[in-house]
Amino acid sequence: MNVKLGIIGFGGMGKWHAQNAPRAGVEIAAVCDIDPVKQQEAVEMGYKMYPSAEELLRDDNVNTVILTVPNYLHKEMCIKAAEAGKHVITEKPAAMNVQELDEMEAACKKAGVFFTSHQNRRWDRDMLIVKKAYDEGMLGNIFTIESKLHSGNGYMHEWHIYKKYGGGMIYDWGVHLIDQILFMMPQAKIKSVYADIKNVLHEEVDDYFKIILKLDNGVTAHIELSTYILEYQPRWLAAGDKGTLVVKNFGCEGNIYRTGKMLEKLPPQITETEAGPTRQFAPVPPGGIVTEPLPTVETDWVNFYRNVVDVLNGKAESLIKISEVRRVLSVMEAAWKSAETNEAILFE
């Protein structure tokens, strides 16, 4: 079948889907938005425009929809689309909580339509570099992975600053960062979830969080995001008993660091440093650490839509399974509970 996509919500992400889905052979059949400005933009860009989702869903030429509306509308729009016989793709987060997701999945199953979520950050090159190092044992036994995303831009924008619309950074980016860790190590069980969540600049919604996942494969994953940390730290750090990997930014600058010559025992003399006398944390002697380039990976965000096309034509399974989406939402709920109780939450 030809995938004929209706875009419900023609804001920034709606436009992104309109521009990029056709690269996978998807036809943009129609778009809708309640905002007259966005309606005019869509008409000027040559798209068939509807002023409401209900009108778009009555269009028999549309067989699939992507929901790029504020988070709190995902459940309502998903169920309406399923009842209209349309396959459903939601932007992330797929739902506000696990209960909503379960209701959405049930509606799609009842209607016999395909249901998935646009977790496009599974195709980020920076994350895939870390995943490749993990999969291929490049760092030996990894004991910690840090995923950090910092910005000095401060305040959030539009509906993202309001709790009732599903605003906040855990819903906006936390869902991606958690999904990346779970996608990287799909067989690992989560032993516990601990979280610190703060409102630094915003009254209603979170703009800082630190989530710590202890996994049964020996890895402790640290996920940290802030809209107001003004000196950026590396996007990724992964450390194992055979080396340390650092990815500095989305541009994938960084290296793998290894010991040039492992010190089997520390020298007998104490070294005087600016921090005082020490042996363990004295400067590493010349040649003690060597660097090598990061592994290379090829990726393309549009592979998400290529997979959707294959799924709807019976050629592949969905790369974004609702069970995986549900697990991420469950971690998010555990993080909120941990932040509220100031205790680690036992998980799987």
UniProtKB/TrEMBL annotation:
Lineage, opening ranks: Bacteria, Bacillati, Bacillota, Clostridia, Eubacteriales
UniProt cross-references to SUPFAM superfamilies, sorted A to Z: Glyceraldehyde-3-phosphate dehydrogenase-like, C-terminal domain, NAD(P)-binding Rossmann-fold domains
Chain ranges of the GFO/IDH/MocA-like oxidoreductase domain: 130-245
The protein, known as: Oxidoreductase
InterPro entries per the UniProt record, alphabetical: Gfo/Idh/MocA-like_OxRdtase_N, Gfo/Idh/MocA_oxidoreduct, GFO_IDH_MocA-like_dom, NAD(P)-bd_dom_sf
Highest taxon of source: Bacteria
GO molecular function terms attached to this record: nucleotide binding
Pfam families, per the entry: GFO_IDH_MocA, GFO_IDH_MocA_C3
Domain spans labelled Gfo/Idh/MocA-like oxidoreductase N-terminal: 4-116
